[in-house]
């Protein structure tokens, strides 16, 4: 089973896209040496992504400072089985009815396994009160059974995509804990499965 990714919405090569957002200092020679090393990779997708990155001047890569991330929080959209809540609909709902400037999550996984990019990682999300500043929010479409009771309704495609995404994020933030919304707010059943137990990397 393979996860479905969209170039332009999300790339499976997350470390390549976001490594240089870290507040590190490198001189031009170090950057060139890193490019030379990365060019030895045999994956064609990796090469295509890297060519896009290296067109950016090295000194500009450090203008975006990544937040300190200590939590990766998993949510569900509380959508019953048989109903759809695609990325754009969720985004419009957050803007129109919650007063947000964008969708509150950083990633949204629809039932077909597609991962959609929400807020940029360097932006604070709006998905878990008192924990937004140092966290990344991931939401999957579903979470309620047909009779509107909390249930783990993730499809096999969603599970595969979520696992791949979490592995990439842990490469970027190895000290970040993977938790469910319920673990931080026991009143909420979200994400309707034990995220801490399932993703104990």
UniProtKB/TrEMBL annotation:
It holds the Pfam family Amidase_2. It comes from the Bacteria. InterPro entries: Amidase/PGRP_sf, Amidase_domain, PGRP, PGRP_domain_met/bac. One of its GO terms (molecular function) is zinc ion binding. SMART domains: Ami_2, PGRP. Residues 47-185 form the Peptidoglycan recognition protein family domain. GO terms for biological process: peptidoglycan catabolic process. Residues 55-192 form the N-acetylmuramoyl-L-alanine amidase domain. Belongs to the N-acetylmuramoyl-L-alanine amidase 2 family. This is Putative N-acetylmuramoyl-L-alanine amidase. It comes from Phocaeicola vulgatus PC510.
């Amino acid at each position: 089973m393979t996860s479905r990714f969209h170039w332009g919405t999300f790339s499976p090569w997350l470390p390549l896209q976001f490594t240089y957002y870290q507040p590190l200092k490198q001189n031009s020679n170090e950057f060139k040496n890193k490019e030379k090393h990365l060019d030895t990779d045999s994956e064609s997708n990796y090469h295509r992504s890297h060519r896009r990155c290296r067109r950016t001047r090295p000194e500009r890569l450090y203008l975006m400072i990544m937040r300190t991330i200590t939590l990766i929080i998993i949510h569900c959209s509380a959508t019953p089985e048989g109903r759809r809540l695609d990325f754009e609909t969720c985004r419009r709902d957050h803007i129109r009815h919650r007063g947000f400037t964008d969708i509150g999550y950083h990633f949204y996984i629809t039932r077909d396994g597609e991962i959609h990019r929400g807020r940029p990682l360097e932006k604070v999300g709006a998905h878990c009160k008192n924990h937004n500043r140092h966290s990344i929010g991931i939401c999957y479409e579903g979470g309620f059974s047909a009779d509107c009771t909390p249930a783990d309704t993730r499809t096999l495609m969603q599970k595969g995509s979520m696992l791949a995404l979490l592995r990439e994020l842990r490469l970027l933030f190895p000290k970040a804990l993977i938790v469910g919304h319920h673990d931080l707010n026991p009143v909420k059943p979200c994400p309707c499965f034990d995220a801490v137990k399932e993703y104990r990397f």
